[in-house]
């Protein structure tokens, strides 16, 4: 603890701030990056700049020396690892285990006009998440994700986080739960998960205090439960 802080304060010699990248100002990656900095007792960003880049460009910018680190989802960490230009300091589960990640976002109007289709869409995504969670399906999943219209990454790079062991660039760690696609409460759009997002964005200075907004209007656990009930019937 404190090693990164000391490095930035006393050993940083470049004529620019220590620069880190996240995928978007309002992303879980930005929240996790801020959490990680606080783990290193860095609460002020006086000597640090956070910029925002598309995920696929992060390895290129790291290699070029434009950024000194980044927080992103796979396979863009493994891309840098396998190219010998970076290594993973922490996985997101070490920073905030079980944090919310991707969301399905539709408008209120769409739900009002297409409620049945919305529920069927949630059902389909839940089934897809279940299939992705099965290790027996991971090889096929890797084949799909490697296609140019998805990530275009190599199968070796994609396999690094998908098959139970993760090469961090420094060591190999057990990674059976590196990706959690499905499981008890994993896919539920709960108020607790909404609160994590709101608290993280406020801590990052990206969201003002908002009063009178019901998070359950945005994270629709009722629709999720309707999809569950429909599937059971």
Q: Would you mind describing this structure in some detail?
A:
The chain has about 230 residues and is mainly α. It has eleven helices and five strands; from the N terminus they run H-E-H-E-H-E-H-H-H-H-H-H-E-E-H-H. The chain has helices at about 5-10, 30-40, 60-65, 75-80, 90-95, 110-115, 115-135, 140-145, 155-160, 190-205, 220-230, and strands at about 20, 50, 70, 165, 170-175. Helix 2 links the parallel strand 1 and strand 2 (about 50). Helix 2 crosses helix 10 and helix 3 runs parallel beside helix 4 (about 75-80). It starts with a helix and ends with a helix.
Short summary:
By secondary structure, the protein is mainly alpha-helical. The chain is built from eleven helices and five strands; from the N terminus they run αβαβαβααααααββαα. The strands form two sheets. It has a three-stranded parallel beta sheet with strand order 2-1-3, covered by helices on one side. Strands 4-5 form a two-stranded antiparallel sheet.
Report the sheet with the most strands, covering strand number, pairing sense and barrel closure: 3 strands, parallel
Along the chain, the helix and strand elements come as HEHEHEHHHHHHEEHH
Mean pLDDT, all residues: 92
Class derived from helix and strand content: mainly alpha
Q: Widest sheet: strand order? A: 2-1-3
Low-pLDDT segments, ≥5 res: none
List the helices and strands and how they pair.
Blueprint: H1 3-11, E1 18-22, H2 28-39, E2 48-52, H3 58-64, E3 69-70, H4 76-82, H5 92-96, H6 108-113, H7 115-133, H8 138-145, H9 155-162, E4 164-167, E5 172-175, H10 191-203, H11 221-232
Parallel strand pairs: 1-2, 1-3
Antiparallel strand pairs: 4-5
């Amino acid at each position: 603890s404190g090693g990164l802080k000391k490095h930035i304060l006393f050993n940083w010699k470049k004529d620019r701030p220590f620069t880190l990248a996240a995928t978007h100002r309002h992303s879980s990656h930005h929240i996790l990056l801020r959490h990680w900095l606080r783990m290193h007792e860095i609460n002020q960003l006086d000597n640090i700049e956070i910029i925002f880049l598309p995920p696929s460009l992060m390895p290129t910018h790291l290699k070029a020396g434009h950024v000194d680190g980044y927080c992103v989802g796979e396979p863009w960490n493994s891309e840098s690892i396998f190219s010998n230009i970076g290594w993973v300091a922490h996985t997101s589960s070490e920073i905030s285990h079980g944090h919310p990640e991707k969301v399905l976002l539709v408008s209120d109007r769409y739900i009002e006009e297409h409620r049945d289709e919305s529920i069927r869409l949630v059902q389909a995504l839940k089934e897809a998440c279940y299939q992705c969670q099965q290790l027996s399906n991971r090889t096929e999943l890797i084949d799909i994700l490697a296609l140019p219209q998805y990530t275009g990454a190599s199968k070796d790079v994609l396999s690094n986080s998908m098959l139970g062991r993760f090469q961090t660039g420094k060591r190999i760690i057990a990674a059976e739960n590196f990706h959690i696609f499905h499981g008890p409460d994993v896919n539920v759009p709960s108020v607790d998960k909404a609160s994590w997002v709101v608290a993280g964005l406020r801590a990052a200075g990206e969201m003002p205090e908002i009063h009178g907004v019901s998070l359950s209007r945005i994270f629709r656990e009722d629709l999720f439960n309707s999809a569950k009930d429909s599937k059971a019937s």
